[in-house]
């Protein structure tokens, strides 16, 4: 007898599910298939996962540091590599339970809650060469709650497209006994200097709130950069408040641009030293938008030297002759209110040797006037 495709599907659902799956898994599989949440192919894969891993359902007790976190964010951290869409689907279908009951993705977890996580097919993690995870960073400050390091230029803060491991992965690998370590903020790959990490989620949440409310909470969080810009910046100091829009497509490359419909951004620039053809500035960031100092400086007509994205290519090439092989942007100072002690922490990170050498060479650097004009 020749069965219709729909009949074959239903036969598979009824017979294979009943043969292999427990009553609870059977109810869940029916819900997935007949509610059209999953296609027949997806249903087969889910069944295979359930059969293979039916003894691997995990139960996680929520720790104090994750109290108040949304369930979906908790699952995204626990199930690294699993698509967000799948996480929301298994919550909707009741695969994820809190204290043995069905729940919503936006539920706020409390310390002591027990979260049931079903077995899932996870993408194979790309192995990172051990050599890529061995790197030492200068520690500027550390206690039981925070870690502040001096990030070198050329190292990303986290893994990403084409980057197997960044600072956070390297530190987690070097500190397997540390249960929690997360970035409080980010630095561009080409930027060096102060980088803060939290050892507890409550600390991370508090510092993030200070960063978000920095303009109205009396500058509880302060960040200052030293930056060398192209051109003679005549003003001794000035407040720049161009709004910035993220991810505008220019020539196929994602950029940040000044735009009226962008987010509010505020930077205060102060002249530290003038060289005639270039100026060493201090950039105090009141807000923390992506590429803020770089875009604000370029919008004022004084691009950061060595900046391949927003800078002047001819000027960058000219200043390579005195040894400037990287972007001259350094997070030299950070100050914040400690979330636990409530005391202000002030940290200074001196310029790295390669940038100090550039400044030394600038004292005797006399580029041809015509060349400088062509760079403008």
What labels would you give this structure?
376 residues, alpha+beta, Structural Genomics Hypothetical 15.5 Kd Protein In mrcA-pckA Intergenic Region, Chain A, ten-stranded mixed β-sheet, Pseudouridine synthase
Provide the structure class: alpha+beta
Computed Rg: 27 Å
**CATH topology description of the largest domain:** Pseudouridine synthase
The succession of helices and strands, N to C, reads HHHEHHEEEEHEEHEEEEEEHHEEHH
Q: What is the strand content? A: 15-25%
CATH C-level class of the largest domain: Alpha Beta
Number of helices: 11
Fold and architecture overview:
This protein has helices at 5-20, 23-34, 40-53, 71-78, 84-92, 167-174, 201-212, 292-299, 313-319, 353-362, 369-375, and strands spanning 58-61, 97-98, 114-117, 138-142, 146-151, 182-183, 192-198, 221-230, 237-240, 244-250, 253-258, 267-274, 278-285, 329-337, 344-348. The protein is α+β, with helices and mostly antiparallel strands. The protein has three domains: 1-56; 57-118, RNA-binding S4 domain (Structural Genomics Hypothetical 15.5 Kd Protein In mrcA-pckA Intergenic Region, Chain A), CATH 3.10.290; 130-375, Pseudouridine synthase (2-Layer Sandwich). Strands 4, 5, 6, 7, 8, 9, 12, 13, 14 and 15 form a ten-stranded mixed β-sheet that branches. A hairpin with a 3-residue loop joins strand 4 and strand 5. Helix 9 (313-319) runs antiparallel to helix 11. It is elongated and about 75 Å long.
Brief digest:
By secondary structure, the protein is α+β, with helices and mostly antiparallel strands.
């Amino acid at each position: 007898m020749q069965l219709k495709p729909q009949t074959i599907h239903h036969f598979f659902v009824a017979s294979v599910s009943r043969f292999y799956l427990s009553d609870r898994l059977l109810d869940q599989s029916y819900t997935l298939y007949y509610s059209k949440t999953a296609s027949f192919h997806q249903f087969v894969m889910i069944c295979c996962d359930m059969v293979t891993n039916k003894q691997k359902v995990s139960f996680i007790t929520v720790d104090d540091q994750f109290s108040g976190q949304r369930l979906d964010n908790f699952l995204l951290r626990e199930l690294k590599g699993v698509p967000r869409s799948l996480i929301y689907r298994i919550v909707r279908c009741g695969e994820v339970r809190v204290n043995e009951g069905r729940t919503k993705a936006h539920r706020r977890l409390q310390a002591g809650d027990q979260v049931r996580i079903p077995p899932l097919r996870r993408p194979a993690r790309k192995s990172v060469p051990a050599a890529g995870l061995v790197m030492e960073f200068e520690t500027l400050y550390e206690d039981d709650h925070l870690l502040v390091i001096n990030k070198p230029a050329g190292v990303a803060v986290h893994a990403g497209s084409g980057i197997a491991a960044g600072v956070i992965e390297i530190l987690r690998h070097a500190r397997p006994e540390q249960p929690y370590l997360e970035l409080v903020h980010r630095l561009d790959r080409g930027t060096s200097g102060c980088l803060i990490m939290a050892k507890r989620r409550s600390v991370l949440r508090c510092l993030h709130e200070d960063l978000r409310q920095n303009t109205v909470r009396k500058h509880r969080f302060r960040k200052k950069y030293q930056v060398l810009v192209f051109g003679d910046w005549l003003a001794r100091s000035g407040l720049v408040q161009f709004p910035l829009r993220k991810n505008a497509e220019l020539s196929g490359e994602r950029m940040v641009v000044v735009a009226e419909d962008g987010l509010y951004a505020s930077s205060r620039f102060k002249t530290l030293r003038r060289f005639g053809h270039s100026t060493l500035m201090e950039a105090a960031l009141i807000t923390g938008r992506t590429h803020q100092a770089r875009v604000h400086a370029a919008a004022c007509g004084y691009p950061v030297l060595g900046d391949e994205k927003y800078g002047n290519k001819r000027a960058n090439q000219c200043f390579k002759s005195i040894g400037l092989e990287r972007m001259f942007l350094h997070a030299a100072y950070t100050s914040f209110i400690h979330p636990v002690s409530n005391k202000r922490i002030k940290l200074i990170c001196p310029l790295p040797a390669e940038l100090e050498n550039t400044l030394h060479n600038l004292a005797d650097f006399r580029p041809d006037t015509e060349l400088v004009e062509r760079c403008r």
